[in-house]
Write a structure and sequence with these properties.
Length: 119
């Protein structure tokens, strides 16, 4: 993976670790949603929903289901890149909705720095 980032133009090790960490976090959100759905289905209750409906902020451009890892990973590279850059990152930056939370303070400065769809 280091070589992929390096040859893609991301040479700062801290940036590589930061971007990789964001990707792991994005996947873990979807894993958590999948687990919640499975448990709720087993118990016959409503699951806690992280991704729901459409995003009014992005003019319904991205359905929340397309912000989920297991969905967008199936798209071609250009579409996946667009969704992560323009949909997923803004979504995670505002995930808790409370601008004063420690999460919002940390994620408020999150930037997607993977330069190309093929990377």
């Amino acid at each position: 993976m280091w070589e992929t980032f390096w040859t893609g133009g991301v040479t700062n090790p801290l940036t590589v670790i930061e971007q990789f960490t964001y990707l792991i976090f994005i996947k873990s959100l979807d894993d958590k949603q999948i687990q919640s759905e499975a448990e709720a289905n087993l118990l016959g209750i409503e699951p806690k929903i992280i991704f729901k409906g459409k995003s009014p902020k992005y003019k319904n451009r991205f359905e929340y289901k397309n912000l989920r890892w297991h969905t967008f990973k199936q798209f071609e590279a250009g579409r996946m890149y667009e969704i992560v850059n323009e949909g997923v990152f803004p979504f995670i930056k505002e995930l808790n909705g409370d601008a004063s939370s420690s999460f919002a303070k940390y994620m408020g400065d999150a930037m997607f720095q993977i330069p190309t769809p093929l990377m």
